[in-house]
Design a protein that fits this description.
This protein is α+β, with helices and mostly antiparallel strands and 334 residues long. It has 13 helices and 12 strands. Strands 4-5-8-6-7 form a 5-stranded antiparallel beta sheet. Strands 9-10-11-12 form a 4-stranded antiparallel beta sheet, with helices on both faces. The protein has a 3-stranded parallel beta sheet with strand order 1-3-2, with helices on one face. It binds flavin-adenine dinucleotide (FAD) and iron/sulfur cluster.
Length: 334
Amino acid sequence: MRSFAYSRPSTPQAALTEFGAAASGAAYLAGGTTLLDLMKLDVLQPERILDLNGLRADFGRIRQDGTLLRLGAFAKMAEVADHPEVAATFPVISQSLALAASPQIRNMASLGGNVLQRTRCAYFRDLSWSACNKRVSGSGCAAIEGANRMHAVLGTSSACIATYPGDFAQALMVLDASVTVAGPRGTRTLPFAELHRRPGDRPDLETTLAPGEIILEFVVPTTAWSRRSMYLKIRDRQSYEFAVASAAVALDLDGDTVREARIALGGLASVPWRASEAEELLQGQPLTEDVARSAAQAALAEATPQSHNEFKIELGQSTLVRALLQTAAMEVTE
Ligand code: FAD
Ligand code: SF4
């Protein structure tokens, strides 16, 4: 790993000032489980590391604020996964975090770092492949003609077919969460669904954050569908593995009939993927297996497979059908 300068600012303002002074050579550090990994591989080469763990006292808490759940960006994945009130009121959050990575990583990694983790595309992580538009804009995409079994079938472009690898983001999508960020011009809040960008012709631009902006907090409203929510993750082995396909589902039911549905897919798309067509199809319908199958077909209708991952279309549909039926069958207490 290359040498770098290190500092630990204690306020967002101090971090922003240091980031601005260092210009493009700076990177923020939270748990380091993505950042240091990519620095060791030489994919990232920051000259200055700004360790944000000095912000943990103010922005690492888990708080119920009236009907809002406030999750500090520096809360550890394990702390949130194990929090009893989060598990009872927002099960999809606990499950998405508990099913991610390993206990060691969940103890280190933060929520903010989790949503900003980078793709696991092998060509992105291995410098011996020169063609990767995400690493070097305009260099090409080795995965399109390469081994692309784990790549995306939704939201891809001719410049990049990488999959968004995280789990927690899908939970935030179905709960209509928002994210608060601090930047040089002050603090702003945006819907979480607007944080990630599809690759288009600039796969290197992965989020709508301006350079240097810091995620401070996720805000999750309590809704009629928060408690009846779950995360189903299908992977090649039962632990310590990324999703091949996953579904976060939240339902508001009137008996067997769907009043409101929220669906986000993981492991299948370039970004955390809200399946709006499937949600609309479910509204007002009894949640039978046939209706769930029609919704799953609608969710994957736009899928464009690569040479090695056509199986993801059927797998994604089956995952969603299972998740919908399991969510409908949940015993929910008020
Ligand atoms: P860091 O590595 O510190 O930071 C990640 C990125 O975010 C960096 O670019 C950093 O500059 C930036 N950043 C961090 N915090 C902020 C902030 N508050 N504001 C602005 N920028 C910030 N994840 C899953 O979801 N599911 C899995 O199954 C899974 N399996 C894994 C298996 C392995 C072997 C490994 C190594 C990782 C796995 N992960 C998985 C990814 C892991 O969860 C992430 O690496 C972790 O969540 C990142 O959090 P961090 O705090 O360590 O981030
Ligand atoms: Fe790079 Fe994206 Fe192509 Fe992977 S899929 S090689 S990340 S451009």
